[in-house]
Specification:
The chain is α+β, with helices and mostly antiparallel strands. It has 2 domains: 108 residues, no CATH class; 96 residues, Substrate Binding Domain Of Dnak, Chain:A, Domain 2 (Up-down Bundle). α5 packs parallel to α7. It is globular. The two termini are 28 Å apart.
């Protein structure tokens, strides 16, 4: 399965015609993904495919092995779980035509939205605070782990030079980043969508920025 995904990703790089898509292949791929999860025994409440600017259909019209593939649909989506944060993912779907899917694979997504994770399922949406607090705890733990490794790298560089400049610069960077995160998310709370408490929207912002910082630190 992983080898197939690598081949597909290589094909995507070579395709030059991209167009935002909103036709029947979206529902075809979504239904196929749901059937695959049921077959594998994955317990999920629903599968969502985002109809946004990232949803693209590339016309391929060639064979992949012995199978004719007319097009490749890719974009972002989610697996909605009951009483839990949703799994926000990207996907790749191969189609024989717009009504027949051949293959569907979820792929990692680095820009997953904490707000979306805690609002897709109705039971979580009513009281998103525990969901958001859990995600923030996980995000900060991941950041602490990544930062500890980078701080150790800085200490080793300092040990070689006989100074403490690298470690001090890393501390300063962390302190100033945290000040930025807290100030930026305090600002964004004013943009909370209707029906969501500003405090919850602020928490979602803190999760997103903390996740991004973890990627930067790594």
């Amino acid at each position: 399965m992983t080898r197939v995904v690598v081949i597909i990703l290589g094909l995507l790089v070579s395709l030059s015609t991209l167009a935002q898509y909103n036709g029947p292949a979206v529902e075809t791929c979504r239904a196929y993904a749901k059937r695959e999860m049921e077959r594998e025994g994955t317990k999920a409440k629903d599968v969502v495919i985002e109809r946004d600017t990232y949803l693209l259909l590339e016309r391929y019209t060639r064979k992949l092995g012995n199978q004719f593939v007319s097009s490749i649909l890719r974009g972002n989506g989610a697996v909605v779980l009951e009483n839990a944060p949703s799994a926000e993912l990207g996907f790749i779907c191969l189609l024989a035509d717009d009504k027949r899917a051949l293959f569907f694979e979820w792929v990692p997504r680095v820009d997953a939205s904490a707000f979306a994770q805690c609002t897709r399922d109705g039971s979580v949406r009513e009281k998103p605070r525990p969901c958001l607090e859990l995600l923030l705890q996980i995000a900060e733990s991941d950041l602490m782990t990544a930062s500890a490794q980078r701080f150790q790298d800085a200490r080793e560089r300092d040990h070689g030079s006989g100074q403490e400049k690298a470690a001090e610069r890393f501390r300063k960077s962390n302190d100033e980043w945290k000040q930025y995160r807290d100030a930026e998310c305090a600002r964004r709370r004013e943009d909370a969508p209707q029906g969501m408490a500003p405090e919850d929207y602020q928490l979602a912002c803190m999760i997103d920025l903390t996740r991004r910082r973890s990627l930067d630190v790594r």
